[in-house]
Amino acid sequence: MRPIIVTVGPLAAASANNIATSQTPAGAGALTLNSSLVTGGVAILDTPRRILITTSDTTETFTITGTTPTGTLLTESFLVSGGSTYSALDYATVTSITISGAATGAVTVGTNSIASTPWVRLDEWANTQVAIQCNGTGTANYTVQSTMDDPNSAFAPVTPSAVDWVNTNDTNAVNATGVVQTNFLFSPTFARVLLNSGTGTVTTTFAQANVANA
User: Which end of the chain is more exposed for a tag (fewer CB within 10 A), N or C?
Assistant: First the structure.
C-alpha cells in the first residue's frame, strides 16, 4: 500500500466566543454568528477543528451546520452539559447554529484546542496489519484512534457525528507526544489521530500490508 499521510494542527489560539458573542435567544431559531472568525455570516476556521458551545442551558438542542475543506456538508445536534460541550466533528466553516427553543442562559460559540486528522479508510480485503508512525512537534498531545463504524455501510450505517472512536490499545500512542511508532494487528474500518491539546502538529503515516494501488 502506498502510505497515506494525514496531518492535524497547528491550531490558532482557542476562544470561547470567536464565532458567536454572548446572546440569549428568546425562542427557537438561529444564533447570530458575529465574532472575529465570521465573514459574511459564515465562520471560517483556521483549520478544521471542533466547535465549542458554552451555556448554562441544558434542555435545548443546538444544531451546527457547516462544511469540510472540500465543501461537503456537515451537521450534528446535541445538548450542552457541564457548562460547555464541543462538537464531534471538525468544521472548516460554520454556516449556521440553531437552538430548539428559548435559552435559559446566555450562549457563546467558539473553539477549543481539539481537532483530528482526516479519517483514513483502511482495506478490509487486504492483509490486516497496519504500520503507523506519528511525528508530533511542539507540545502537541495526541491519541491514535480507530472505529469499525461506517457511515457508508449498506447494512448498518452510522451518521458521522455518532461514530464511536476507540483509543488504540497501545498506551504509548494514547496522550502521546513527539514521535511514536505503533501498529494495528487487525485493520479497523477507519483510523485517525486526535489532537488532545497543546501547540504544534502531528503528521501520521498509515501503511497497510498488501494493498494493491489503483
Answer: C
